[in-house]
Design a protein that fits this description.
By secondary structure, this protein is of the alpha+beta class. It has one domain: Histidine kinase-like ATPase, C-terminal domain (Heat Shock Protein 90, 2-Layer Sandwich), CATH 3.30.565. It has a 5-stranded antiparallel beta sheet with strand order 1-2-3-5-4, covered by helices on one side. The two termini are 23 Å apart.
């Protein structure tokens, strides 16, 4: 199964819509709660990053017997220094983002902590975050 979600930049009202659908799907599949929690936490962080740091993008959600795979793609401006962006507390969020409760600088670190595999590629045209959650023994993590 593969699903795709559009993510609209600066639309705080719809922020989290994709992650909520992913949560409903995993719950309906009877995926263990601890595993759901990891997937949904990372999904929400990635979705919010697209909302606050890009000009829009989309996400894909794939379920197979071995893993749950999430891919988040956005259009510009990209992450100038991925290593710095992975530092807990580092944020380039605007005052508006902070006023809406976002931008604590924990997005990428939380995604990495929650997932079994994470890769981030970025340039001036956009960013791709690839997250893998291995099923089986990892369900109990």
């Amino acid at each position: 199964m593969v699903r795709e979600y559009q993510i609209i930049a600066r639309n705080y009202d719809l922020a989290g819509r994709a992650s909520s659908d992913i949560k409903r799907t995993l719950k309906a599949m009877n995926v263990p709660w601890s595993f759901q929690k990891r997937v949904c936490a990372a999904s929400y962080e990635a979705e919010i990053n697209v909302v606050i740091h890009s000009v829009g993008g989309y996400a894909t959600f794939e379920v197979n017997d071995q893993a749950i795979i999430l891919d988040f793609y956005d259009d510009g401006p990209g992450i100038p220094n991925i290593e710095l962006a992975m530092t807990e507390g580092f944020s380039t969020a605007s005052e508006l983002d902070h006023a809406n409760g976002f931008g604590a600088g924990m997005g990428l670190p939380n995604m990495k902590r929650s997932s079994d595999l994470m890769t981030v590629t970025s340039d001036h045209e956009g960013t791709h975050v690839h997250l893998v959650f291995l099923r089986g023994k990892a369900d109990e993590k």
